[in-house]
């Protein structure tokens, strides 16, 4: 199973720990990424471009907004473009996959996952993980309580910094800043336990093989190329590239890979769509942000929302 796909699609939860803990620095480590001037976040410049993808949801005579997010980003990506600003201004609630403003949610992310036993790594895998941590300037000590499947995601996040991409500049972080500036409420579409149980295989051997394959992928230079291509496709609102991800990611080679893809993406969409429908039904004016790959493929979140009576219209990029 390809590490890029796993981390950018599923590590929105675990990557938040990277933002909190920071990363070790050494002589050959990538330089720190500088955040935009806070004034630019409080009063975004008129020329800031729109990035990502935005849909309008309509039901019962009221609108909500659905934004395709990405869990790694560049500093300038924190500045919302005019359409995202308008969606923020029209909303009273920011709904994320997880309510990352809730301290109990953050604590749950760093705790053992119910139903997912610990996974001691054999010496060879432990040595490979430690070598990758050194090469990517990552101190894994703060993540010692995380399942190894999630620890590997931290290695990818840190390696992406060499290409100017950081977890602290993912869209969840930028939207939370904007929501606080506007006094919006926060809501979560999933619980930490449900999300992590979907992301981590229940079978020990399956989890071990996932770690092994992820390390192999991370040891290849192709991982950075794939991460960069996926991030740039998001930034350009290139839905076609996102929809054809499996054709170029070199990430689905077996029935197990296909089952994992279904478990971590399509199987989660109905639950998130139901939560969106409930919040909308309570009169919340929603801006929803969910990982971009949830908008693609059979059983997408868009389809799940349409099945619950929403009219879904793409607003950015405008369909040709």
From TrEMBL:
Pfam family, one: TraB_PrgY_gumN
Endpoints of the signal sequence: 1-26
Superkingdom assignment: Bacteria
InterPro entries linked to this entry: TraB/PrgY/GumN_fam (IPR002816), YbaP-like (IPR047111)
Keywords attached to this entry: Signal
PANTHER family according to UniProt: CYTOPLASMIC PROTEIN, CYTOPLASMIC PROTEIN-RELATED
Protein name: TraB/GumN family protein
Species: Roseateles flavus
